[in-house]
Amino acid sequence: MAKRVSDQTVVPDRAKVRVIFAEVEGNNESVQEALRTMVSAMSRPVKIVSEPRLAENGASLLGQAEASIDEEAAQHVEEVEAPSDAQPSNSERAPRGSGKKIDRNAGLQLVPNLNFRLTGEKSFKDFVSEKDPKNDVDVVLLALYYMQHVMKLQKIGPNHLMTAFKEVGKPIPLDLKQTIRNVMNRKMFLNFSDIDDIRTTTQGDNVVEHEMGKSG
């Protein structure tokens, strides 16, 4: 660390004075005027200002003081440490799909004693095979149509639909309830105010009866 200004050795002040005598030539008035001017100038007080110099390297006190201040500031900055457990900013978001997986179908249960093979009726499995559904929406619509119009169930909910998916060996949607809402909101094939009491609409029935399974 650099020494303080007060620790420096200072050489005693030195002064140098040079006296110059002037020779004036002219008439009496001009010589007298010149003398008066010289006497007036010599009678003024003289202020001598000298700067102390360092004994060793001759550097000014101001330079040394600035060096001392800079070094102290540098030491102060080095003592400040950034927090090690910095939290990521809002812009550094986790990649999509890397979050914790949630089972949206948690709480749903298979409904026991559902008879998908009624005597004198086409089985639900044969019905689905005949209609050839292309996606989850089609399977949901077919299951609701069959349970409502063939099995004559009074109330049909997500548990019944999950059981129907199991019956025909179709993959259950990851969020079955949301799939049901999508069928109602986007296709208008279903109607319900209570998701545990779903009914097909006339439009949904027409799709099942007149459009599905009609390839070509």
Percent of residues in helices: 40-55%
- What is the CA–CA distance across the termini? 91 Å
Could you state the order of secondary-structure elements as H and E? Answer: HHHHHHEEH
The gyration radius over C-alpha positions equals 51 Å
What's the CATH topology label of the largest domain?
Arc Repressor Mutant, subunit A
Shape: rod-shaped
Strand content: under 5%
Mean pLDDT, to the nearest integer, reads 77
Number of strands: 2
Q: In order across it, which strands form the biggest sheet? A: 1-2
**Helical stretch tally:** 7
Largest sheet: 2 strands, antiparallel
Key traits:
mainly alpha; Arc Repressor Mutant, subunit A; single chain
What does this structure look like?
The chain is an all-alpha fold and about 220 residues long. It folds into 2 domains: about 5-80, no CATH class; about 125-210, Arc Repressor Mutant, subunit A (Orthogonal Bundle). It contains 7 helices and 2 strands, in the order ααααααββα. The protein has helices at about 30-45, 60-80, 125-130, 135-150, 160-170, 175-185, 200-210, and strands at about 190, 200. The protein has a two-stranded antiparallel ribbon with strand order 1-2. A hairpin with a 7-residue loop joins strand 1 and strand 2 (about 200).
